[in-house]
Amino acid sequence: MSLTRRELLAIGASAIAAASAGPAFAAADFIEGFTEGADVGEGGVTITAPEIAENGNTVPIGVEAAGAVAIAVYADGNPVPNVAVFKFGALNPNQSATTRIRLARSQNVVAVAQMADGSYTMAQAAVKVTIGGCGG
Amino acid sequence: MASGVKPRVKVPKSASAGDIITIKTLISHKMESGQRKDGDGNIIPRSIINRFTADFNGQNVIDVAMEPAISTNPYFQFDATVPEAGEFTFTWYDDDGDVYETKKSIKIG
Lengths: 136, 109
What we know:
The complex is a heterodimer. Chain A has helices at residues 5-20, 28-35; strands spanning 40-42, 46-48, 52-55, 59-64, 68-75, 82-88, 96-101, 107-115, 120-131. Chain A is an alpha+beta fold. Chain B contains no helices and eight strands. Chain B has a five-stranded mixed sheet, with no helix packed on it. Chain A binds chain B through residues 57-59, 75, 78-80, 82-94, 96-103, 133-136, and chain B through 20, 33, 35-37, 44, 55-56, 59-72, 74-83. β6 of chain A pairs antiparallel with β5 of chain B.
């Protein structure tokens, strides 16, 4: 198969476009497990993460979604994308939490919130990792 | 029992009724992810704390299901409403079946 340079570039560009279009995550299957196939909207949930993490072994992240019942956090590029599921009780005023997580490499961190009315919404943050966690 | 596990919790000593307070918790635990290998190339088996809960007078504040992607010495910060004087109970559940519990009481005034 012989391709001209122009064709190759076109294929590359379309591949990149396909990869960045929509929620084409490695974690998509896990997210579907959490939402049980329901549609996932945007907005109403915020995820706070550093743009650049020097040490992937402990990356501080925060999630918040007023009115949420639960928030699940996924790390798209980890060997196991699941990170944690926060469930909020009656005495939780603002449905927010902060913790520290491991990231194997630069990737998107995704928060999916289950709202009180049963709808789902998500947000993501890209984190650049200088030294990956989970190493051995 | 996993060695050297020590929970640490920061809760204000007192608050007004209905106040929102911030709670910080940390427990020392190596949180072995099950991904690492030892010097001979054998996988070190997973050994983590898989669940953390915080309750106030029997009412739930937060319940976290944890995976190996949570860092060593798991840290959580969250807010809680304090409707009356009482006691917070913090519980961590280890993979090996151990349960670590610590309590903090809070006064009104």
